[in-house]
Design a protein that fits this description.
The protein has helices at about 20-30, 45-60, 100-115, 140-150, 155, 170-180, 205-220; strands at about 10-15, 35-40, 60-65, 120, 160-165. By secondary structure, the chain is of the alpha/beta class. The protein has a single domain, classed as Rossmann fold. A 5-stranded parallel sheet has the order 3-2-1-4-5, with helices on both faces. Helix 1 links the parallel strand 1 (about 10-15) and strand 2 (about 35-40). Helix 1 packs across helix 6 (about 170-180) and helix 6 (about 170-180) packs across helix 7 (about 205-220). The protein is globular and about 50 Å long. The model has no long low-confidence stretch (mean pLDDT about 95).
């Protein structure tokens, strides 16, 4: 019998939101054997972790949740109960920015990739419809990829890591169209920064506004459940 080619493994950061669910679907479309990684970092909207579990199960991929408790550090409306989630657009880097979050997330993904023998990491950052976060920019991703080569056994021994950002130049509407084409169940995703324990959205935060505008621009009915 002919030998069946083994799919290349990849680690996909899966928050449970619209972008990461689409990123997972794209990685699978590209033929990767995906391993989903979610982070419980003390976020107030931890209903997204339940959503991530549903998404991973539906996609048939291995799913790990790592507890890192960034709420101990605080400094963000997403991890500090004393800082309110804004219900209006703000200038500059918003208070929903979590200090060093993507650096921590990518570092953990990189560690798991080494264990798996994977050279590919997927993250759903976006530089178009994003909220002004410095760790969602292309130059940041390029810098982390260079770091991965210097900081790992695999990199030092000649391997080459790739950090894939398939959504980075897409509008929210384009992301929604892409996910719809790939069969992503957006009704099961949670994007809201102030989602309740059942995952119902507030409709007012920056994430909710971007999501709603994206569905409208895409001409696709918004399946979001609102509180």
């Amino acid at each position: 019998m002919p030998e069946i080619a083994t799919k290349k493994p990849a680690v996909v950061l899966l928050s449970g939101g619209l972008d990461s669910a689409t990123t997972l679907a794209l990685a699978q479309e590209q033929g990767f054997a995906c391993h989903a990684l979610s982070l419980d970092y003390g976020q107030r909207h931890n209903a997204e972790l339940t959503a991530a579990q549903r998404i991973a199960q539906g996609a048939g991929v291995e799913h790990k949740v790592v507890f890192i408790g960034m709420n101990v550090i605080g400094g963000s409306a997403l991890t500090d109960a004393a800082i309110a989630v804004p219900d209006h657009a703000t200038e500059g880097i918003p208070v929903t920015y979590v200090p060093a979050r993507n650096t921590v997330f990518l570092s953990l993904a990189l560690g798991w990739a080494e264990v798996l023998g994977a050279w590919d990491i997927f993250i759903g950052v976006n530089a178009v419809d994003y909220s002004g976060y410095p760790d969602c920019r292309p130059e940041y991703i390029a810098a982390f990829q260079r770091l991965a080569q210097l900081a790992t056994k695999g990199g030092v021994e000649g391997g080459e890591f790739h950090v894939h950002t398939p959504l980075i130049q897409l509008s929210k509407a384009d992301i929604i169209r892409t996910g719809t084409r790939l069969g992503v169940n957006f009704a099961g995703t949670v994007s809201c920064y102030a989602a309740d324990k059942d995952g119902r959205a507030c409709s007012r935060c920056d994430a909710c506004r971007l999501r709603a505008a994206g569905f409208q621009a895409a001409g696709i009915p918004d399946p979001t459940r609102y509180a």
